[in-house]
Structures are given as C-alpha cells and as structure tokens.
C-alpha cells in the first residue's frame, strides 16, 4: 500500500531539509510507540557532555537513514536500472527506518555492561508482540521476518543488505552529516548529493561510478576526522567510563542484596539479564538519568559518588600513555593499589580504535566490506587500488591509550607513588 | 578575577561556532550542578514532537545568550564608549548566563499548572544555599543580589537590565537563531553580526544606529515568523495541552488521596506547592518523562490514557474556530456535555497570541519595551516612526482559536451533536 | 527528444547544488554562442561596486531559473496533476532557460540610455539567424515562435506564461537566492523547497496551497529587503548614474562628429540605433569596460573624467532629500547653475521605488499579478485577504529621493550657493 | 595613522561575513586605481568555464587575505604574545592586501606565454609611479620597499614573511574557502576559526598549537581535494590550453608582421616584452576577452578558430594517458603529423601536479615550507612526525597526463593512424 503520491507527507529536518514519506506503511511505523521511544534515546550517548549541541535522538537519525535510502531507491527506479529488484523497495525502506529500533539508553555502555546487543533487540521487537510487528504483518505474514533478516544479514537478496549495511550506507551517511550538524564540527560535511548520484546497483551489490571517487575519498576522510574529533573524544570516553562504572556498581550491589532507596522497573530485570521485550521497551534515557539522580542519595558511597559525577558532569581526568608498553599500565595499577586506591574504580584504561577504511589484503576476493568503483567499461575495482588517498590512509590503524582517574582522590596520593609513575600524571595534569 | 586572556576557553557551538569564556567566574558557574541541570530541560519544551530536531536544551541556549552578551560588551569596551559602565561587565555576563536557571521541566506548562514563575526560581537559586551562590559570593557579598536584581528588573543601573532584557536582547537573538537551527526552519536566520555592530550604549539604554534599521526590521519579521511557524504550531500546543492535563489530573488524584503505583520525590512537594530550592533542583524532564511512562500503568484510566498519549505521541486533533464568536465555544462545550463527554478533558481551547512588535501609542514617552534608533545627529526615534515595515506590522494582533479534542472519543459521538457543531469538526477533520 | 534519463548531466551550482539537465535540447541550447555570451553580462550590473562578491553572470542565473522550472514541472508530472498540460514541458523549460537571452551589458542603464528593451532582443535572437534558433527549430517549425510568445506574454496557454512570469516565478526565486548568496546579504534566504512543494497548477495558472502562506510571506519580505538593501543601494545607483552619463556623453559626441581615439564595433550602430542581431550579440560587458578604460584617455574632458570615475570607482557622493518637495530640486538645480556647475552632469536625481507586493484594489477581478492561495475546499483567495502581513505591507509605496553629485567640484562651490541649499549638502556630507 | 576604532568600516563579504577596515591606510589603498583593477581579473582564471559560479575576482580574494591577516594579528595583539613584533602590523597588513596586485589577466596562462611573473609586477607597481606607491610613502620613505621586500621574501623580519607566505598562510586559507564558496564545491570548507585560534608567533615564525593538529589535517585534505576537483579539472586545463595557443599564435602573427584587423594598446608592448608599469595596469580580462571576440573575425584561420573556441566555449576534448610512458606521447605526435595534423596546435599534453604537503626528507632542518606544531612543553615538531594522515599523504606525488585535441579535426583522421593510437582516442572518446 502506498499513499497517493500527491499526498506525500513531510517532516522538517535540519539535515535533509525535508523527510518525504510516500508509503503509508512508513507513516504508520513512525507512529508506533516502539519507534516513538527512539526520541528518548540520544544518537550520540554521552557526547553531549563534550559537545553541548549533540542532544539529538535516534528518532531523528532513523528518519534520516530512511530518507537517504528512499532517495537512493527513487533514483534507481527513476532511471530504471535493471539490477535493482523493484519489489524489494518496502523491505529496504522498513529495514532502513527500523535498523536502530533495538538501541537502549546510552547504548554502547549499557551493551558492554550487560552483554546485550542492539541488533538482537531490534529483531526481537520486529518479531515480538509489538505495534511495529502488527504494522509490518499487513504487508504479508513473512514481512516482519524479511525485515529482521536484513538486520541479521541473512536475507537472501544480498543487494538489499548491501544497501542498508555497507561501508557507504545510508546509516553512515546520515550520522556523519547529522552528528556534524548537531555538534557544530564541520568535518562531517560530505557531498551526499554527489555520492548518491554516483551509486549504481550492480549485480548483488551497490557500487560507485568511478567519477564519484573523489567524493568517496572525502567521505572517508570525514569519517576519519569525525571518529577522532567527536566519537573518540576523551571527555566523551570519560563520561562513558563513569556510566559503565555506575552500571557495574549497581549490578554488584543488586546481586549482593543491597537495599536501594530508589529502584524502578525494569532495572531489576536488567541486572538479572531477564528482560522481556515489553520491559526492554520501557528502558530509555529518562529512566536511566532519573535513577542516577536518585542514586546520588544512596548510602553506598561509591554508587552515590559516581552517580553525582555523571549527573553533575564531574568527570574523570585523563592522561595519554604510550600504547606500546603494557608494563606501564601494570605498574600504574600496582602503584594505585599500593597507594590505597582501588584500581577497579579509580583507574580505567581506554583504547579507542578505528580504521578509516579497511581494504583487506590485496588478492582477497571482493567482499561486502569494500567500496567498489565501476569504471566506464563496467569493470569493478576496489577503491584503494585506484585512489592514492584511500590507499595511503587505509593502513592507518591509529589509536591512543588514555588512563582515566578521579583527580581529587589520586593527586593527593601521587607523592606515595614511584617517581616515574607520579611524573606521568604530573606532566600532563 | 579573570582568566589570563591567552587562556581563553571555548565551547564548540553550532550556532555561534565557538562560545568564548574569558572570565574565570563564568567557567566556574557553568561547572555548577545547578547550571548543568539545564542540560536536562529542553529549550522548546514539547516542540520536538512537531519538529523532531528541536531537542536542544536550555544549557545550550544559556551559553548562547552569554556569548552574545560577551560580544556586545567586548565591542563597547574596544570602542571605548563612555556611556557603558565598564564595572558592570561581570554582573551583566552572569545575569545573561544565569537568566534561565530557574526554568523547570516543560517550563511553560508546569508554570501554568502549578502557578509558579521561573524568574522567582532563578532568584531563589541565585540567593539560596547553592553552588552558584557560592561562586557568585566570591565577587562580593552583594554580588548574588546584584545579579538577582537584574533578573527581577530592580537593579539600579537601567542600562544593564536593558542589555539583558529588551525587545532586542541577547536572549531573543540567541533563541531565534538557535531554534531556527535545531528545528531546521530557516525563518530565524537574522544578521546578528550586523545588529551587534549597530548597537550603542546611549545614556541609560542600548539603542541601534539608524543604519541598522533594515537588520532590525528583518529581525522583527523573523520573530513574527518563528512565532507562527514554530512556537504557536498547533501540534506543539496540542502536546502542551496534554501535558497540562496530566499535571492537573495527577494533582487532583494526589489531593484526593489516590494511591499512585509510582510516585517519586519531589512530585508530592510540587503538588502541595511546598518545593524547597533543593527539591526544585531535582525536577528535570527526565524525571517527568519517567513518571509519565510509569503512570501509563496507573489504575486511573484518565491519567493512564493521557500519559500514554504524551509518551507515545497520540495527540489531540484540532480544528480552527472563529475567534470573534465566544458563543460558539459555549455551544460546543454544551454539545460535548450532552453527548456524554467531559469538557474538562475532552475539549481544550487555545488562543496563542503575540505582537510582532509593540510600539505603544504615539505620544507615549519612550520606554524600555521600544526599540530606539539613533540618527547621525544623536537624536533618538522609536523604530516604527522611521520604518514603514515596522509601523505596518506593529498593529497586527493576530491570533487563532483552536479547539483540541480526542478524536477517538469525539468523532463517534458527532452524530449526537447539533448539525452545525458536528459540521465544524467534520469539515476540517 | 530527451536524453536517456540515466544519462542526465549536471552542472555544479552553489545555489541549487546541482543543475540537472535531462533534455537534450537544453544541453544543446546551453552550448550555443548566444547563451554562452551571458557569461559576459553580470546579473547585477554595477552592484559589484557596492557588494564586491556580486560578480555573478546572467549565465548562472539563467541556469538557476531553468532548474527551478524543471523542479516545478517534474513535481507536477510526478503527482499527475491534470491541470498541467504535459505537452508544454519543453516550451516552458526553453522559455525559462532563455528568458534573459536579450540582456545587454549593464542592462538597465544601457536600455534606459538607448531606449532598448531586453525582451524584444530576446525575441529577435530566438527568431533570428542564430544557433539558438536552429536548435529550437528541431522541435518544430513553430517552436521558436512558441517560446518567443511566452516571453512576449502572448502565448495561448496562460498557465505556461504564469509559470515563467508571475510574482512568484522561477526567475524571482532564483535571483533572490542567488543575489543573496553572491552579495553575502542573508535577507534573501527563502525556503524554496517549501514554496515549490506548495505550488499547484489550477486551471489557467499556478497557485499556492494555503498551508504555504507563511513561506510566501517570508518570500515577499525577503524581496522587500533585497530591494532596499541591495538593488536600490545608493552606491549602486551612483555607479549606474555615471554609466548612463557615459553612454549619454559618448552618444552626444558621436552625433556631433567627435573623433574618438578609440572606437570599436558595434558601438557606432548602438549610437545610431541600428544594431542588427549579429551586432547586438557582440555587445558584452568586456567590450563596454574596455571602451571606457580606453576613453579615460579621450580628449573630451567630460568623457574622460566620467570614464575614469567608473573604471576606478570614484563615484558621485549623495544626499537624501525630502520626497514631497519638488521645488527643492528645482532650487538646487538653479543654485548649481548659478554657481557655474552643469546640472546635466553635475547633479542627478534618483528615485528608486518598488512595491513589496501589489494587491490591487479590492473588488478587482483576479489577475496574473496576484498571488492566489488555494484552500482545502478548492477556493482561491488573493493572499492579502488571508495574510495580515501581506496586507500590511502591500500598501507601502516606499521610495527615497537621492541627489548625486561630484563632490570635488560641488563642495568648493557651496559657499556661493544659498545657505539653505548649501546646508542640505553640508549636513549629510 | 589609524582610523578611530569606533569608525571602523566594513565590506560585506560572503566568505568572512564582514571585512573590517580599521586602518586608514588600508582604506585608501583599496581606493587606488591599481587595487580597483583587480576587480577586472578573475581569481580562478578560466575555471568559470567548468564551474559557472567561479566568477569572483582577485579583488574579493585580496580583501579576504587582508581580513584573515588582520584577525591573526589582532589576536596576537590581544593576547600580548611577545614573539610578535607589534610594529610590523602595517607592513604585514599592506603586504597581505597587496600581494596579488601584479596579477595580469588569466594570470597563469599569460605568465607562461610571455614569461612574466606576477610577483615582479607586484613589486614594480608598489615601487613605481603609482597611487599605491604614493599612499604607502605616507608611512615612511622606506615603506613601499619594506612591503615589496615581504613579497620578494627578502624582508629582514622572517616572521612577517612567514605570516604572509607559508603552507598555512592567509592567502591559502582565503582561496580555499572562497573558491569552494563560489564554485559550490564543498570540499574547501575548513574550520578557519579553529586554525586561527591555534596559531602562535614563535621566535621567527608562525606555528600551530598541537591541539590544532586535526584542523590542519583537514585543511591539507581540503587543499588536496580542491586541487584535484577544481584547480586541475581537465575542462579548465583545456580552456587554459586554448588560451595559451591564442597568445602564442597572436605573438607569432605579430612578429611576422601580420596586419591585425583589431589591435589594441598595450597588446603590442606585451608581444614585444616591453610593457611599462602604466601599460601593464591597462591589461585586464575585459581587454583580453574583447580582443579575442574581435579576433574571431581575423583572416588568419587558426587565430580566428581558437578565439572562437575560447569565446564560445568549444574546448578541446581530452583523453587520459599513462604517465609512465613518454614514448606513447612521441608516437601520438608522430601519428598526428603523419595524418596531416599540426601537433603544435592540434595536440597538447598537460601534466598538472601538486603535493598535498611536502614534508621534505627527515633529518632536514626545519624550514619555512613546513608546518610546525608546538606542544605543551614548547617543543616544535614538523606535522608529519605527529600526524598519521599527513605522513600518509605527504608522499603522494600524484598527477595525470592528459592529451587535449580538437575533436572535429582529429576524429575523422583516426582511421589513418596506427590502430593502437586510434584506440587510445576511441576508447575514451
């Protein structure tokens, strides 16, 4: 079913100007409680503590991913490319819109703390007793499962998965643009119109016309810059560390039978690892922030302190350390222990890492993690074979080790630590 | 105390590019729990339900107001204008930064529902036992009171109040730019650089050089458009109506001794009107949203329904009605009652109104609500005397009456209503 | 004939991002010498002397007008509106692309000085022995005449003319956006996407869906501001006055048989009013500027002086005078004469004027100069009946009289003039 | 002499919003005929034939370079950095403003064709009998020479030259931003505010605080992209090739005593290599375009043809050829000759090349072509030692060979050429 085309609806969007909804099913999926819940989950987790503008939600991003996918497919349809399976339009649009449906509050931290996976949750919501499931069922008894299998990457049409998940997919394009817009960091401004114009369905996958190569280079550079400027910013990592400590401490206390002054459903099920879909859908960032604010009054001094740190943004300080030297970290840990600190909470090591683009070894067969260029003779080449820039940067496996610590507790004790350890902290402090 | 100028700190901001912090006191005020709390209060309340991008907080806006004020004052200092009292710099900057400190969650609705006033709360926080108060005290025992009196508009330097609150103040300039940026509505893009360049301290107030007239016209038009396109958007009003209904119903139930399944401090004190400063500071939008989500499971069917409407964005529908005819509204109300509906919750009338610019009657003395132009002969004239555009629009007292109602309950009952009432709903429905 | 749609070509454009060429005829028209000539005619004449960024050509603007028209028509086609005559697509696109083909160098001034009209020239080029004519002929023997009759406003399909020329046409929309972009003046930033979305073919004309009213209000305000900030800027008018003086003086000298040291074809034919199409097409701004630069060495001191003023930007100074008082102007003229000045060259009066929007008298029948809104009941209303803002501003018939004069010659002679005249100049000087 | 600070003047600029003029000398230099002449020389030469928006002049760019320099110096002054010699402010500002004063029409091509150098001409204009010279003299008898020696890079204050000319100077920053703005290519959007904030005077040069490293990486990537997307675009190169052919042919004809139907001063002096400063200043792009348009009617068929190509944009076609194989080029040349073509005009080889950043060999002493980072311990490091990205790309010495040729003449003759040569043209044609 499709809205009459003259009745297209729009959402005003700062990144794409307008989000165009032309299919009735998209309109109704947006209107479900499960999709509306994404308004209460921030796109960039705790990044707003570093970039105060980054308060946008996964709701906005999901609409953006849908819109880019819609534009790609419309272009394929308008130009009549025979390699695009026209009957897959709705599966692809729904998968694009719903791919983040399973994200929990402060997603990366909560997943790490409780060993969950948002893609699993997306599939459970798609297939469970939910409004989203009901809307999808109207397009066929197997439709929810088709959408879920795109998410799971087991769908039998590889081109649909390649459209929705690839190194140059609508998800990445939207988040670069959107995160750049909301943080104010202008490195993410890619020429999306040009990239979209250059995409072609080609057999089982989406490739890029060779003349779009420079636009893809620019996209990969933007991605690299956004990782280092925004996603891996040490202040953001510091707040995520506090967040994981809170989750860890609360779970320890819960398991030890501690009597919380404030406890709220479904946190107990979260601690126990027994969340149902219905319970999971009640988890949002409002609930987490409310719990943390209440826990600032808990009697456990550690929980109370770290909750206060998160709520009032009193983050851990950090120093950079040499990545090549694991003994240093052990020595610091020992020095902390000797000085009476608790390395489990007073010292955190963080090693964010990302490859700007992973070309794999030459000689490997083409695979779905590569970006392929289509030349005028219809030959495919992996982009780093053609682009000097991409070849140059694809080998960079950059990363920095940071140590995070509570300044107030650690600095008075530096005198009790070995001089070379204390110096590490004093030089950068 | 001022940061060494070479140690200026910055915040990346999407609207002003960078927020420059040059005074140590500003840096430390931003770092207080009371100011950090503004991250958990949205700048535009429920507007995000209409414009999904409008998820920005009062924290961002407050930094923006500070930055604009800082730029104005720096310019006055750099140019050495003698009418600007240089010693007022810090009072003005602090008042600019802190002017919204007392805003509660979903501020306009909560103020209306519980008869509170955010400026009172700002002053209570400035003067109470808070971290903000402690930081301000370092600049002098009377410093908190000086800042509060600017907020209260009783300070003895009128030019400082005029800088912080006037029809062309930093507050309005920041919110036009910021709300335009986050909603994506481009009507709010004013030429702030030009306006700032044209501002002059003149005796007791801030005036505009005559050659800046067109920039001010444009600013007033932007303001007008933003009111009608964004601030008064009927979908936003609809969500605010639901919000007020929830507050009203919860208070009724609380006063009637209803046993809430979920209740959280400091809501009882809010219902009782007995909030202390410490309690007030625990109120934020996370807490309100959490309460509402939990209340969707309350046994009171009305509370449960309207909380579900708010959380899942199932808003009331609306029709526009003739503003000149109060009997119509009475007739609708009666028809609702006769059909078995409850006009207290099933029917809401809303009449948003704003003047683009209020010039007051000619012949009135100049006052602080007017925008004054300074000509080359140092004469002041109220802007609508000079600008055809401003004169033309300043008489427009526009407004539209909307009736809001729960579609699912009302529409099946239209047949039982008088035909001319039912038609009102059917024609626009 | 149409390019295969998958072979669409694009031009990178700063205003519309990309100009999309989908019809072979458009591609070939752009490639004609007559269209390429528009690269050598600036869009804003002498405005670059006031706004140094405004160096863009009519070539850029013409592509922009074409692109907006293409977008409107594509939307009409996609939505299948029955009131749009699909077979008129190519006539409309060609007329949009070519509507400025007849503009000469510094068009407004040259037209005024030599009593020419660019629309006549456009038609002569369309119908004459030109490459443009040959390309058009391929679509039918009557095709050039069909395009010309749209320009002349005698075409028998009023909706095509209304699309190409109306108060809300592609021409005006492009020039507001483009002139704003190149001058850097941000008043021209209209929400073109929204306006385009709201346009509807309705019987014989293009109307606007009522929900687009605010976007149209904003467009009219932008237009008003651009007129006063950019198009009527007194510095620009001053340079146009010099330009007209040069044309006038050169013609006088030519007619008097003066022996020019430098003369170049086709200037003699311009002076004689006998330009052929082929000669007209050799006129461009490079030729005019070259002549003026060479003429700075002419023996006629007046011609040499005013050419130097234009080339080296030594413009006339200006003062504003009361518009209500024609005797003042006569008195100034007399005073100039008495002081030994030549009012024909030493004094110019300029009275730019524009209506932001001309609603005509109420009670008049609807006409093509009005903007009509289409409400949900398919009723048309002229916009000023519905919009308070448009009604308020449509009565403003604003204008300012300026006197322009050569400061170096006039100021030393002010002492010889009556005190009240001299004062006029001294007060503003 | 400085304008009273409260009387600062501004130019509206699309790139920097406003250009602020605070020194009287700058105001008066802008007003000279020599500086105004830059309005008639395009910043990007023939790039407007590829990117129709790129019609901006060296006048705009020169103001931009001045503005960035002013901002850097103001910041140094405001922060009181002792390594910045405050007395050099005016020399630096004048050199920044005037550094492009000697650019001729279509500068790169004319310099190549006539073996001229724009920096020499800049110095001749600064020191010759010009208005610019007179204005500069007011600041001291040696002031013109001081400015000239900055241009020549012989000034005795290296930090001033480093500010005006370095891999990260105001010139490059302005042209990246400005050319990106006018072409519409968004790769040039660098975070100039951040780069400027990070610049520090350090002994004899300008260095970058280490925390600005990512902004510099982004700047170098932008530069790289702009070179390949814009400056080296083969369509632009094609038009430059035509341009050089015209200059070459006209000179040949002139030297052979050919009787031009149209000839204009100072072209003979240009051909003879005897231009005086006064003659040089009469050269602008209007004159060149006018000559070319007139020459389309010359009797020499080659001159007439290539002038028509330039004026009507009938450019040479191009194919890419293997850069590693000089014999191929020789073989093509021979095949052309054998087929009766003239390789001197019918075949042009072009090999544009640029290094994104040239780090030089490790172990070399620091020099002025490097970008140095200043860490928190006041140590300097060359950027490619610290930045993985810069190290990766600084080795890329990319370039592509293109062959350009007149399609109409060459293609009919391909059959007469050896098959492997003809194939080269047919495969890409």
TrEMBL record, chains A, B, C, D:
Q: Which SMART domains match?
A: HDc
Q: Name one GO molecular function term.
A: dGTPase activity
What name is this protein filed under? HD domain-containing protein
* Source species, domain of life: Bacteria
The scientific name of the source species is Paenibacillus ihbetae
Q: What is an annotated GO biological process for this record, any one? A: dGTP catabolic process
What lineage is on file? Bacteria, Bacillati, Bacillota, Bacilli, Bacillales
- HD domain residues are 58-176
């Amino acid at each position: 079913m499709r809205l009459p085309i003259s009745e297209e609806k729009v959402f005003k969007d700062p990144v794409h100007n307008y989000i165009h909804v032309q299919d009735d099913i998209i309109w109704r999926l947006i209107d479900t409680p499960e999709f509306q819940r994404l308004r209460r989950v921030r796109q960039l987790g705790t990044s707003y503590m570093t970039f105060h503008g980054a308060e946008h939600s996964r709701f906005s991003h999901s609409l953006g991913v849908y819109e880019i996918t819609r534009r790609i497919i419309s272009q394929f349809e308008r130009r009549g490319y025979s390699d695009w399976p026209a009957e897959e339009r709705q599966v692809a649009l729904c998968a694009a819109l719903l791919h983040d449906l399973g994200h929990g509050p402060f997603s990366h931290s909560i997943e790490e703390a409780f060993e969950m996976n948002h893609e699993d949750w997306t599939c459970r919501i798609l297939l469970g007793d939910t409004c989203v499931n009901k809307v999808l069922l109207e397009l066929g008894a197997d439709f929810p499962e088709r959408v879920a299998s795109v998410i799971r990457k087991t769908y039998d049409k590889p081109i649909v998965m390649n459209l929705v998940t690839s190194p140059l997919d609508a998800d990445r394009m939207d988040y670069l643009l959107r995160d750049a817009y909301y943080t104010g960091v202008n490195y993410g401004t890619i020429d999306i119109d040009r990239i979209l114009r250059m995409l072609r369905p080609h057999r089982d996958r989406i490739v890029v016309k060779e003349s779009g190569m420079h636009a893809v280079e620019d996209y990969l550079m933007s991605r690299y810059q956004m990782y280092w400027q925004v996603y891996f910013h040490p202040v953001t990592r510091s707040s995520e560390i506090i967040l994981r400590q809170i989750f860890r401490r609360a779970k320890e206390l819960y398991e030890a039978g501690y009597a919380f002054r404030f406890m709220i459903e479904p946190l107990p099920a979260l601690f126990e690892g027994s969340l149902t879909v219905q319970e999971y859908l009640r988890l949002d960032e409002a609930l987490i922030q409310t719990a943390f604010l209440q826990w600032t009054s808990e009697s456990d001094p550690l929980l109370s302190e770290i909750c206060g740190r998160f709520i009032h943004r009193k983050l851990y300080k950090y120093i950079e350390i040499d990545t090549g030297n694991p003994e240093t970290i052990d020595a610091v840990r020992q020095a902390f222990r000797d000085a009476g600190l608790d390395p489990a909470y007073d010292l955190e090591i963080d090693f964010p890492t990302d490859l700007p683009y992973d070309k794999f070894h030459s000689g490997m067969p083409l695979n779905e993690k590569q970006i392929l260029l289509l030349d005028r003779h219809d030959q495919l080449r992996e982009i780093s074979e053609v682009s000097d820039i991409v070849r140059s940067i694809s080998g960079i496996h950059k990363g920095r080790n940071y140590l995070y610590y509570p300044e107030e507790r650690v600095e008075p004790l530096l005198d009790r630590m070995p001089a070379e350890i204390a110096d590490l902290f004093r030089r950068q402090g």
